[in-house]
Amino acid sequence: MNLHEYLGNRARKTIMKSVCTTLERNPEKNIPRLFKMLKLLAKDEDSNKAIRNIETYYSDNPSIKQLIDSILIETNPKFLKKFFVNFIANAIWIGGKKRSELLENEDIKVPFTLLISPSMRCNLHCTGCYAAKYDKLNGLTYEEVDRIIGEARDLGVHYIIVLGGEPFFVDFMYDIYKKYDDILFTPFTNGTLFNNDIADKLVSLGNVMPMFSLEGFEKETDARRGSGTFNKVMEGMDLLKSRGIPFGVSSATSTNNLKTVTSDEFIDMLVKKGSRMNWYFMYMPVGESPNIDNMLKPAERIELGRLTKKIRSTKPYFTIDFFNDAPYVGGCIAGKYYCHINSNGDVEPCVFAHIACDNIKDKNLIDIFKSEFFKGLRHRQPYNKNMLRPCMMIDNTNVIREVSEKFNAHPTDESAEAMLHDKDFQAKLDKLSSDFKPYADEAWEKDFKSKGNDSFAKG
Ligand code: SF4
Fold first, then answer.
1. Whose CA is nearest to atom 5 of ligand 1?
2. What's a Pfam family this protein contains (predicted)?
3. Nearest ligand 1 atom to alpha carbon 338
4. Engineered SS bond to 444: which of 32, 196, 304, 386, CB 3.0-4.6 Å?
């Protein structure tokens, strides 16, 4: 390290320390100072621009101001600090530099986040669960999860999403969360196991911020997840809110619940419960008995994107639409910004694309990221010019078939088998794709002026 770098690092550490101290004491009273320090820390232009944008939204948009103020006032300071250090500093800045160097020097694209399903065991049996066909008896061991996460961290990954199955069924994950306290973890949970003991454990960790699955109010949620589920989730939220633990909600949208999960009543209820964000997914034709009729109709899929944006700009609530926000991240992110390790150890490029060439039991993560399969897939991205049609399974249906054949990827469950080899099922998916195209083309021009994030799109 030369003198210039040494001094730069020292200055950075001093500013980081000041940010942490400010977050621990009255952060809401020091917001201009916080923005100033964050801009000093963010050396790269993209991060700096993102902070400037948030600052502008904060001063110009009352709902964003309300959201940020309430997060700073109501969140347990330990979580604020962990979010800043683990997510902003470690995952975006420090990890980002490491990942960029690997890409520039060795053409290895290390994803920003890793999704991992340690086990498929679950106390519920939800209709249309994308993961229903995975093996429920076996799972990854503590040693395997420990190894994967250690390798990921060494490669600059500091944000991990934990799926399943029900993540809170896997006791050893608490040891993982504790051991990797420089990583931010987001378990996606059905919320039915929460009690005082679990909430206290999360407080003592500080780096675990859950997302509760909800398909709407009691009627919609219980119809899919079983009677009593909605009320258990409400109790879980109360336990976290009372301790200042930040959390969000993930909603699978289908033609049956689109209106409900984007309604003012639903969002207002969640804001009141203490949730900070909603992550909208679309019901996908994977998992148990995939039913294309349950998927959003073309106009509904576009409407979801517009409603998501409206909530984001009018409510003190952050929203992400996994599909309609794709233009902001350059289209499909499979195998590029994220991937999924299933409970068998197969490394799938996307949590919905149940195909794999490699298993973490046979290879190190870095060798999987530099495999021909991952490289070949990302070099095809974006699959077309319209980033509102990002998907290799439902919008560009040839892609999953061609890459699987070319790289000899195997299906990791029955529904992927159908996607790759069942002609009738393929014809239905092709129709779905061609039906959606005119709607997507119109919205691409109208809502995005035919422009997405080209620099993120490159594989
Ligand atoms: S394959 Fe489809 S679902 Fe998966 S990341 Fe790409 S666009 Fe999203």
1. 334
2. Radical_SAM
3. 5
4. 386
Give 10-residue mean pLDDT values along the chain (459 residues).
60 76 79 85 78 88 92 92 90 90 93 95 71 70 97 97 93 97 96 95 97 93 87 96 97 93 97 97 85 92 97 95 95 96 96 96 96 95 96 96 96 89 94 97 97 86
* Distance between CA atoms of residues 443 and 390, nearest Å: 14
Span from the CA of 369 to the centroid of ligand 1 (angstroms): 17
pTM: 0.93
Burial label, 137 (beta-carbon count in 10 A; 0-12, 13-18, 19+)? exposed
Tell me, yes or no, whether 354 lies in a domain.
yes
Question: What residue has token string 């930040």?
Answer: 246
CB-CB contact of 438 with 388 (8 Å): no
Give the residue whose CA is nearest to atom 4 of ligand 1: 350
Residue 433 Cα to ligand 1 midpoint, Å, equals 14
Q: Are residues 362 and 417 in the same domain?
A: yes
Residues with CB under 6 A from ligand 1: 332-334, 350, 352-353, 390-393
CA 91 to ligand 1 centroid distance, Å:
22
CA-atom Rg of the chain in angstroms:
21
**Shared-domain flag, residues 175 and 64:** no
Domain boundary at 47, 79, 99, which? 99
Domain hosting 350: range is 110-458
Asked if residue 406 and residue 319 are part of one domain, the reply reads yes
